[in-house]
Every structure is written in C-alpha cells, then in structure tokens.
Amino acid sequence: MNLDIIKDNISKKIGHNVVITVKCLRNKKEIYEGKLFKLYPNIFSILTRTGEKSFSYSDVATKDILIKYE
Fold it and tell me: Mean pLDDT of successive 10-residue segments in the chain (70 residues)?
C-alpha cells in the first residue's frame, strides 16, 4: 500500500479512538488503546492512559502493526 494513502487515511481519523496491534517476535502481540493524537511526516502518535506512543507509517504498510478504528 502506498504511504501517501496510508497517511491520508490516518489523518482523516485524528481524534478517534484506535486499537493498535503490534506484531512482535515469536507470534506475540502487543495491544495499545488510545486516541489518535498527532501526525508527523514519518510517524503518528496515540495518547494512551500511560502516555504517548508513536508508530511508523511504514509499519502499517508492511503490516507489522494493525489499526482498528472505533
């Protein structure tokens, strides 16, 4: 998927609640819940209960992270 399309799709959802699943080693997953907070040229951030967490658009393109909008 094109990074410009991914950035555009994510920018339309700023302020919405999201659930992000990060694929880790050995089939483990980490799940983060929060509100889509800020957009930067190469990363985007969500605001969770514990603070701010950032993710890369390229990780979305390679499907290393999955975003579910609520």
Answer: 91 96 93 96 96 96 94
Beta bridge partners of 38: 45
CA 53, 36, 51, 33 dihedral sign is negative
pTM, to two decimals: 0.88
In the chain, the amino acid numbered 1 is M
Q: Which domain holds residue 54?
A: 3-69
Give me the number of domains the chain comprises. Answer: 1
Cβ neighbors of 49 (< 8 A, separation 6 or more) are 34
Quote the CA–CA distance of 58 and 42 in Å, as a whole number.
8
